[in-house]
Each structure stands twice: as C-alpha cells, then as structure tokens.
Amino acid sequence: MTTTNPLADLTDYLSESATLGEVGALVAWDQETHMPAAGAGARAEQLALLAGLNHERATSARLGDLIQACEEHSTLNSDADTMADLREARRDFERATKLPADLVTQLARMGSQGQQAWKAARANNDFATFQPFLEELLVLVRRKAECYGAADNGELYDPLLDEFEPGATAASIEAVFTPLRGRLASLIDEVAENGTAPDETPLQQHIPTDRQHEFGLFVLDAMGFDLGAGRLDTTTHPFCEGVAAGDTRLTTRYNADRFAEALYGTMHEGGHGIYEQGLPKAACHGLPVSQASSLGMHESQSRLWENLVGRSRAFWVWALPHAQRIFGGAFHGYCVDDLYRAINTARPSFIRVEADESTYNLHVMLRFEIERALIRGDLEVADLPCAWNQKVQEYLGLSVPDDAQGCLQDVHWSFGIFGYFPTYCLGNLYASQLMDAAESQLGDLAPAIEAGEFGGLKTWLNEHVHRHGRRLRAAEINERATGKSLSADPMIRHLEGKIRPIYGI
Ligand code: ZN
Is 0.90 topped by the overall pTM? Predict the structure, then answer.
C-alpha cells in the first residue's frame, strides 16, 4: 500500500473505528438502562453485528498496512506522542490478529456455556456441575495465552494479565502483594482482637430513593463530574460507560434502607467518569491518548473518590449538612464522627463485592494466587474449592460455609476471564499513592474537602493521570506522578491510620 501521508490515513481509520465503538457502547448502555425486555432479541443482533464489524476493522489487512507504513515512515524526528500512538496501534493489531479464528469462536461459545453453568451451580451450591466447564475453559485460556506468548523469563499468566494491565507481570504483582498480605492480615487481627466496632445504625435509616438520587447528583457535581457532558441512571449492576467525547454515562442502584450503597457506588462510578471526561477524546479521537491506560489505573480513579475522599472525615464535615437538608430529617441526630465511623466499619466477610476497604484486597490476592496456580497447572480445578477455603481461613480467619459463598461467587472465570482480578487491588494501591503525591504537592487536602472544594484534586488528576491516556503505561503514570515505583506502603499507612483510631486501638 502506498499513501502520501500514512499517519493521517491511520488516524482517520482509527477515528472511524472509534466511532463504530461508540455506537456499540451506546447500544450496550441502553440495553442495561432503558431497553424494554422484548427488545432483547433484536438488541443481541445489533450488538453482534457491531462486534463483528469492529473485529473486522481491528484485524484488517488495510490496518496492518497502514501501521507498517507509519512505522517505516517514522524517523528520529517523530515526536514521542506519535511513537507511543504507533506502539499502541501495533499492540492492538497484534493482539487482535494473534488468535486463530477457531479459538476465538470456541472461547466465545464456552464462555457463554460456562456462564450459564456457573449461574446454575451457584444457585444450587454445586461446584461439581461447573467443574467440567471450567476445566474446558482453562484449556482454551491457556491456549490463548500461548498464542499471545510470554516473555523469556515470564510465565503463561503474564499475557493474560497484560490484556487488562499492559506491562504488568505475575512476578511484579507478587512483589507488591506479598508484603501487603501480611500487613493487612495483622491489621485485621488487631481489629478483631482489640477493636471496638463502630455503631452502624446511621447507615440503616430509611431514605427515599429520589432523595438519594438528588444527593448523588449533588455530590457528583461537587466532585467535578460534568453533568452537562454526562448522566446518572439506574441499573442492577452499576457501571460507567465513556460513550464518546462529551458523553459519559454513569449508573447506580438504590436501596431505600441502605443509602451508603448508592452513595459510594455513585462516587465510585463518578471517579471512573471523571477519568473518562479527562481523556482528550475530541482532540485526539481514536488515538491511544484518548483511551484509559489500564483497568488498574481506571479503578484507581474510582477508588480514590469513593474511599480516599468519600470515606474521609473531611468529606462528612462537608457532606453531613447537605445530606441532612436533602434527605429531609434523616441524620439530624447524628454528628460527623457517627457517620465517619459507621462508613469505615472493618469486618472480614465472605463476599468480595461486599467487603470493606481493609479486607477487600485480601479477597483479590487469594483470587490472584489461585488463578495463577490454575494457569500454571499447579492447581487442578477439582481442588479449587479446597484451595479457596484454605486461603479464606488463612487470610480472613473465616470458615467458608459453602461454595456459593466461596469459589462460586464471582462471574469472571466462568466466561474465561483470567488475569483481571489483580487490577482491583492495583487500583487501590495506585489510588493511595496518587493521593499521597497530590497531598504532598497541593498541601493537606482536608480543609478543601471540608469546604466542598474538590477542584484542586480533580485538576491534579487531570494533569498527572488523565491527559496521558494510553500513551504511558499505568506504572509509568504512577511513577511520574508520585516520583516512586508502585508500593503498598501508602495504602497500608492510610488504612492503619484510619482504622486503628476508629476501633480504639
Ligand atoms: Zn470500578
């Protein structure tokens, strides 16, 4: 292929692919929020067609030629941004074309069957019926990892992890997780042995969902989420969909007797949304800079707002009078410390998605260790429940009563997703390290948060995280922003510094 300006052609091509992706995102968002149930059949066709068109474009010979032409034309004069764009375009193309078509089809089919089998197995608390599906999926997932290939000194788990956290390896994750595990486990022991648990009644008041929605919008607006370029709707499973430039959709769910679920869910998705709004999607449409760096970095933005801002005492100094006003009477008998203590209850539990800030990461670590062992072949699927229960006992001090509350609780493995779990914990780690750096550069943030002024923090995140998109790897964004490589210390310091005083230790 000969083109006069391959870079312009590649940019146009990627921009058009991005537009097609945006249509798919909008259609998928609608399916979760407003579509009538009877539209499901047609919607599946629409989504399948769009996915097929996207895959065709992502693997086309024309795209391969354009990337190659750009690489050949790129000279020492090419700027760093262009080189990064080309590197990422090449990476996407390689990943999209490395898997043989029959493997892609088999993975999709087994993923769908696996998910059905998992649903039934979880409902019936019957791991044995799920086991053969997971065994078959594991064979396919290992084949997929072999197609992607691991580095010489790496392992098969690495290319799976790399899909969600580019550049990370099992060894690099292990190096951060291992010291973290011991310190978290001893904090949880301290709390269980010597701590006085907070009174949780402030969280158990009845607050009508329309009031909760109003409060959620009020908080999002204060955080700096641009509601003129986004929305907040209701779904069963909350998510954030960065549809396009100027169009970021958040969803949440309400429980009239548990306001904290929606509030923290909304702040979490709001953090994802602020990241999406901070990416240069209009100016650099379709280029890697317009996309998030990794799932771990994305999660860091949601966790930062949810936990480090939303569960701080300073946040409740600001939020309590507004909550009292909007919730109409609820909270009138409570003070800031009542709320602050209640929303920071730390208690080991069986279910990851219900875990509190201090026990959550242990749930993620045991999943990482187990899935890595499964991929390596060090653990047989048949022995999974036993391995799971042992780790829950060891890390959380709990005896798992049944597999539904144990190894059958998460959907990920049932459709062949391995290597995803560590990104949840990486998000927490990045969040704490970034928050520390923001505070060391901007000064103590508590007075601003107490005054409801979140703009300084948001602008700092825009500058140090969001604007880089995918041109920098998450580890590099973290290092440039904080001056240090990833460490568990900031998160541990944060948790110990918060939980010990709350529990009177
Ligand atoms: Zn999230």
Answer: yes
